Amino acid sequence: MGRAAGTVLAILGVIGPAAPAFAHTSERAFVLLLPTGYYMTAGAIAVAATFLLLAFIPKGISDRLADARLTLLALRPPSPVATSLLAFVFLVVLVFAGFFGTRDPLENPLPLAIWTLWWIVFTILTAIVGNLWVYLNPWSGPLHLVRRLFGGRGAGRTAGHPFALPPRLGYALAIVQFLAFAWFEKVNIAPADPERLATAVSLYWFVNFLAALLFGDEAWFGRAEPFSVFFRFIARLSPLVWEPAEGEPADEGRMRLSLAMPGAALLGREPLPLSGVVFLLLTLTLESFDGLSETFWWLGINGINPLEFPGRSAVVWINTYGLLLSWVVLVSVYMTATALGWLLAGRPGSLVALFGTLVFSIMPIALGFHFSHYLTAVLIDLQYALAAASDPFDAGMNLLGYDESMVTTSFLNTHDGVRVIWNAQTAGIVVGHVLGILLAHELACRAIADYRAAVISQAPLALVMVAYTLFGLWLLASPVTGG
């Protein structure tokens, strides 16, 4: 009973005021005292000031900023078949290394490729340059070949398929699969074990390959395969926007690449169904709980001495409950804040539609958490990835002239080095929330005709974002186990 109560209190801490903290601990357990209270206060003020500034500027100014475009070029997008086939071959090599290479996750290329290069770095790269997953997913190319060989109609996403994915499912299958991924990444006792990871990756690839054959690429990758959905939304944060070229008939099929405000591609979208809202909030839950579950505070309230951390096997059930409860709390807080804003604004339009519109504003917040939480790990693990690429099968090779002995963490041993990292992490959290406030403002103004009502409707959600800024900065400042 005491442990369950502690878990509930920990989750409620996500939305409550963060306690003062003065220690920053990296995932490698390097500790350096920094005046984090000043950073937390300044970050929260910056987010609140953004909301107040937007509330008082004329509507047309923010609209013009959001709609501004600087055209860079226009072209006809290439087929993703060839690049997808290359990605598939690369994945096969990695899986082979997972099964037959070294069992050390810092020397085997599969864990480093999946957890560092793909999940961490590729997500950030997608937010910068756009949806590369369309070209680098490992299914499009193999699906094309299989349909050509056996069905004669393998030429694209609209190729024939025997079953239709029921529209009423919405994003439910994406939720189930992403929740399984979140559990594996955060709760499983050895997610970086090469053989275990190779088995999971192979199973995941096969299930989604078979499902795409049965239900069609467009439906499956549009609503059911979670990373196609996730990367599509993350890509809309990019300042590089792809839009259909307009003008001459020769422009048919051509796309225009423009420079725009980050997140501009999220504006003007149809509201997501409730399943889509829940899916996006699940992605933020993973980024948030990933940090919370490693803190001394989380372990302490669950009766575990963080200085004698027994390992992930001791917290499987605690973290399972914590992950699920965090998700429920985050969904409840978001919907309560949005509903309260809707009531204060005089009930304009559909509340369900407002849920599905304003949820886009959490995407930059999720990205900010992602960047800040993983920054230190990336700086170290990218070096291990380079060393693993030099000898992918542990055969004594040194293809790239870089081995594990050259990996350094010296940048964590100095005050200046840690301060630079802390400043970058703080900026990631704060900028993510500021952009979230800006997007929420624009989304509300486009969903609600009356400008005053639109501004009022954002106030409760803005307060949640300020609190979440404090929570995010508190996470960065809290000592962690690195587990």
TrEMBL record:
The chain crosses the membrane at residues 39-58, 79-100, 112-136, 163-184, 196-215, 321-344, 351-371, 420-441, 453-477. Keywords: Membrane, Transmembrane, Transmembrane helix. This is Fenitrothion hydrolase. It comes from Microbaculum marinisediminis.
